[in-house]
Amino acid sequence: MSMQSLDIQRRSATTTPSPDARQTLEVAKLIDVSKCIGCKACQSACMEWNDLRDEVGSNAGIYDNPRDLSDQSWTVMRFSEVEVQQGKLEWLIRKDGCMHCADPGCLKACPSPGAIVQYSNGIVDFHEENCIGCGYCITGCPFNVPRISQKDNKAYKCTLCSDRVAVGQEPACVKTCPTGAIVFGSKEDMIDHAQERIADLKERGYDNAGLYDPQGVGGTHVMYVLQHADQPELYHGLPKDPHISPMVGLWKGIAKPLMSFGLGLVALAGFFHYIKVGPKEVPEDEETES
Amino acid sequence: MSHSAKLVTRYTAPERVNHWFVTITFVMLAFSGLALFHPAFFFLTNLFGGGPWTRILHPFIGVVMFVSFMAFALRMLKYNHITPADKQWLARLPDIVRNHDDNLPEIGKYNIGQKYLFWTLIITIVLLLISGIVIWQPYFAPKFSIDMVRLAVLVHAFAAFVAIASIMVHVSAAIWVKGSVRAMTRGTVTAAWARHHHGQWYKEIAKGSGK
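ok -> structure tokens follow
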């Protein structure tokens, strides 16, 4: 929910500019996977701050708990056991959740005016009171993040604690992280900080360490430092080159205005055809015949 | 004069009821669908009780339309096979749209434009049903893969565009060709109308009724 009604740079299903008078600093959350110990304090902090309580699930034999994102679980630790080098087991733990894309597929796909907004600081937020439950945001998202509640049929996801950020605080997960694996600040600073971390990782033998800030979606406001940035798929299927699906692009990019315009043209063509040639009537002589 | 003109039956009462039932559901679907397609049409959600109600109702109305449309299509199927006379008639289309109807080939109950409409609607409405089920929240969409859903929204939009544009042409033609609307409101057309627009059909029914 927003207190930042003057900081909106993009609004779903809206063709005129949004209130954008105030310019705020572009922010980012940086998650350093190499520092994460998988304690799930961030999950707890998220539940605590946002007053969310997922159902107690059952143990599925893996550490992922809950098993998936939901309307009550906006962030979930994903545990992957991989062998990048033969015989060297690595436990990669990625905090999954909304990436807050600069070019958000959810917002592009959403048909309800103002149900999804992007603040000038880069945070993509759902305004559930405008949500109609159509699921188009799920269709648009390249990261499989939004979840529709079975209780109220509204879509939910990580808000990047937009309410906290609006008053100058860091997101709850950042505040609670005991190892400093999650940090928050201006996007510029976060990139700088990531570069230091990457240089350090490279020194320790992670030659392919790098920053995950995928340009296919215009960059993201949640970024990862990955030990194996050349293979993001290792981290529970993090997409290597995410972008808004071309099918969604065609649907919401070209088809939407063109087909609406086309229907208008067909209506006008029918009307002006009638005005030009007049009604088609049975000739008088044929009517009297027989 | 023409006030005492001889009338012939074109549609029975059940056919007319069926047609207008499809009409009502189609218009509701077009309005609720367009509302969720482009923000310019979002105000139409007010006709259905707001955004969530529009989302809830649209697919159910869709299923009702599918069933009633298919029942109607079944009634009309036998009149919609394209014949050589239809092709000759089509060649005269530039004259026909200018209201120059002299010496047109005699055709059956429907002209080729109407037949194309028939087949276009069958194809698009089947596509709309299938793609509509794939994107139906919250019941079915979660059961399909994300790429299936993405394809389905695209198919749904294109099929709806073709169907709505076709219906606009259908309505325009009905208004343009005088004496047509009464066929679907009162069930009858004048004999002269039948002879002029559907000569072959007129001969068949005239023969059938022993005249």
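Helices of chain A lie at 41-50, 105-109, 136-140, 162-166, 172-176, 187-203, 246-277, 284-288.
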